[in-house]
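Same chain as my last thread, 297 residues:
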Amino acid sequence: MHKFTNSAFWMLTLLTLGCTAHLDGNIDKSSSAGVRSFQQQVLDERQELQDKSPVTQFSQLHYQPIDHAKTWLQIGVDNQVFAFDSGKSYIGAYLINPQRLGHSVSVLSPLDFTVLIPSVMILDEEFRVVKVIDSSQFTYDGGQSSGQNYRGSFTLPDGYNSLYMLVFSKQKDYVGNTRIDEELLLNSMRYDRVSEVGKFSRSIIPHSPVGRLQFNFDADENGASAVNSPAGKPQFCEKNRTPSIMSEQEYYQHIRQAVAAKKYEEAILFIRTSECAGYKKGRDVFFAEIEVSNVPE
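reply #2:
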């Protein structure tokens, strides 16, 4: 692999930005003014966000249903604003059906002239937080796969017919930037990817509170059959032959309530009896609720 020298980077920048080099080594001021103008635009977007009045309750957000397993989500200046402990953020609010879409979710945030670094929050039907996916779970792939992207993945909690999903960016994330490896610029020029050369010629991509994200939901394999599979039941079930009088969701709700009240033995009993009834997600519900109960207010 050829080393991308400073001189090569210099020439690429001149070619991409259309700068006029003078004999005295100076660059046409119009190009630097364009860069400053773009940087100012990013600063203006951040300031505009701070000047907006936020929504104060999750129930006040406008939730849009997600109907497709693969979808692009746009977070823009017309989105509602919410004030988190981490600062104000534009927020995308969505209604999802994990039973239909699937529980495994992968996220891609492409580097463009800016990039949005996401965080994700999952709420139950009562707008209570059941899972938080921090921005640290989304990392820059360094161009190792197609394009230049931030990527991450997570799983939705089990035991819910519907969930609310909030997508936002923390203040500490949208005031930062990502440095592009100079070798990537050389590759963009080598393969004549003109659009990428234009985007990455600055070598540093500023983070922004707005941007677009691709969400991919993977359908669960054998999801329905797993619940009803006639797998061998544990000895506990043989000793406790009381017929089930609750639905699957009722079992999971009892598990959540017991964990919230710190009645762990009671929660475990509900887990075991739900498994005897053929429901396989009780343990996942238990640990998801434990995780939520440990999230600081």
